[in-house]
Amino acid sequence: MAFVDKFVAEILALQVALYHARARLEARTDSEALHDLRIAVRRIRSLLRPMRSMSQVAALNIAAAEVGRLTTPARDLEVMIEELEGRGFPAQAQLRKARLASHYSWILKSPALKNLFIQLDEWPSIFRSVEASGGLKHVQPQIEKELIKQIDLLHAAVDDVGFDRHELRILVKRTRYLTEAFPSLSPLSGKAASALKALQSALGAWHDHYQWCQKALIESDLRPLEKIWQSCAATALEKAETQLVDLSKRLPKSSGKKKPPKGAAEERARVV
Predict the structure, then answer these.
(1) Can you tell me the mean pLDDT for 197-215?
(2) How do residues 3-33 score in pLDDT, each as one tens digit?
(3) Does an H or E element contain 168, and which?
(4) 104 neighbors 34 (Cβ within 8 angstroms)
(5) 140: nearest Cα among 129, 132, 131
(6) Nearest 10 degrees: CA dihedral of 107, 111, 112, 118?
């Protein structure tokens, strides 16, 4: 299968996955529906990222980003509810479940989700027209360039001991997801990709516990867990630092153009 054909097929498969996840969310059949919907959105964005400057993919990319932002608070609430139940705080969990149900309804009725499906319906013919006019001749080198750029940015962040760990988490996620979207074009080895995933997991655990500690400052029913979460956050960050050392040994050589990531704080809000 030609590269463009495979690319279009992957987007269409993700569109089907989105329909399935939306149906499960509507029926409340399981607790993973929203998570799976967000994964599909994230993969769409990762596939589009190297071509995001093309006007023919901009609308779909923007629509996917909006759904990512829209669903983030609900997903954060799901994770917190799971944490509260696991820690033996059912009353706090139940209180947030009512709030979560409202989030689900809001997402399902949102113009953002509706627009994403509209854009997905319209996108294949638009993209094929670009192909027909010769606009995709250099798409593979463009993707490879984006992958190298992300790895260079990661090199710069890894080499900077004072680099903000919140921003590092975003950079790690983006590099990992882009590599997963285009594994055959990525210069990352299998071991480097595994190290990247492990680092993301540790940074994610740290970030979750850090955010919960912040919430405990304003939501009084969470305060009994504040010290536990502080300890867990510290442990997760220590693990992340160890994983970071491991990743630094496995990254491919920099292209020599590595620069500190710019605007990472602004990008944080746009990541799924």
Answers:
(1) 96
(2) 888 899 999 999 999 999 999 999 999 999 9
(3) helix 165-181
(4) yes
(5) 131
(6) 120
Query: Which of the following CATH numbers is that of domain 138-253: 1.10.287, 1.20.120, 3.40.630, 3.40.1350?
Result: 1.20.120
Instruction: Choose which CATH entry (1.20.120, 3.10.450, 2.60.120, 1.10.1200) describes domain 1-134.
Output: 1.20.120
> Structure pTM?
0.88
Give the Å distances, CA to CA, from 221 to 80, 97, 188, 206, 214: 13, 15, 45, 21, 13
Residue 25 contacts by C-beta under 8 Å, 6 or more apart in sequence? 33, 34, 37, 104, 107, 108
**Region(s) of the chain under CATH 1.20.120:** 1-134, 138-253
* Closest residue by Cα to residue 60 from 45, 50, 72: 45
> Residue 178: which of 159, 196, 155 has the closest Cα?
196
113-124 tens-digit pLDDT? 999 999 999 999
pLDDT at residue 1 tops 60 = no
The alpha carbon dihedral of 135, 136, 137, 143 has a sign of positive
Report the alpha-carbon distance of residue 68 to residue 234 in Å, rounded: 28
Q: Which residue has the tokens 């990525």?
A: 186
The C-alpha atoms of residue 145 and residue 257 are separated, in whole angstroms, by 12
Q: How far apart are CA 131 and CA 50, in angstroms?
A: 16
